[in-house]
Amino acid sequence: MSKLRKSARGKPCCLQIxxxxxxxxxxxxxxxxxxLSKGIALKPPDWMAVxxxxxxxxxxxxxxxxxxxxxxxxxxxxxxLERTWRLMIDEGLITVR
Length: 97
What we know:
3 helices; alpha+beta; two-stranded antiparallel ribbon; globular
């Protein structure tokens, strides 16, 4: 398991998709976002992922039925990417030169 995946343990959910988010840091994992390299049995790189609770993760992976517009889900993922990167940068897990 990569350092980035391990780093998700106990973190806050950065997706925070209302009203689905369970807000429980015990369920937070590194959730891979849609990208050019994603496909059947292929995951994007770990830096193209966000900290998300089990409920938000289920939603973005399509395991939960919902009536939220696609645009709202995309906005949530973009906000989560910024929040997650900020936490990772602050902890020295990723660096920006």
